Amino acid sequence: MEALEDAGPRGGSFLDRVLRYLPYMALGNLFVAAPAMIISIVVAYFAFEQADATKKMQVSSVWPILSYDTGNLSEDGEPEITFNLSNRGVGPARVGGMQVSYDGTAYRSIQDLMRDCCAPRGERVGAIVSAVNGEVIPAGARLAFARIDPVDLSPRSYARMEAARLKVRTQICYCSVFDDCWIEDSQMTGTEPVNQCPADWVQFGFPIGVKPGG
Q1: Whole-model pTM above 0.90?
Q2: Is the confidence at residue 210, as pLDDT, over 50?
Q3: C-alpha distances in Å from residue 65, one per residue of 36, 59, 71, 139, 152
Q4: Helix or strand or coil: residue 92?
Q5: Does 52 have pLDDT greater than 60?
Q6: Are the beta carbons of 100 and 64 closer than 8 angstroms?
Q7: Spatial CB neighbours of 88, under 8 Å, sequence gap ≥ 6
């Protein structure tokens, strides 16, 4: 600028000289501003990474893991067929849907399944059932959603049910407190993350929000 002032109007207009040096002045300002811009970008990136890491830590701290199994003995070692759910995760699991099928057919109750697979027409079938749909299963909890005692069936039908239980397919859709949802399928390895629980399942057991006897 001093050079421009010393030059005055000689050798061309003063404005022409200003315009000639303007790109150099702008380039100088860019060199001054570039480090601040880079620092701002770096700070924003680390802030984003920190927020993402915090969210992942929150999700993992309440991550439920539901698993299904079936047994043929009670805790006392007595004969009893059970169908069980266990939460092996670190957070509660809200069950948003459940489908139980045998030989390709989905059933709304364990009694209907028992009549089709194992008991002759007209035979009385019985079972102790627990509500699962819409329920919250705490971390570390294990529950039997169906129990079948030998007195609930004839000896022959009970033996058939003992063999059939290993062919029962159970699909459970459950969600965390952050509404992250998964499907546990007894015929698949691992769980499948989903955006929402399937609406076309034949819901097993009591309707969501309805308790036994309700």
Answers
A1: no
A2: no
A3: 46, 13, 20, 8, 32
A4: coil
A5: no
A6: no
A7: 65, 66, 67, 140
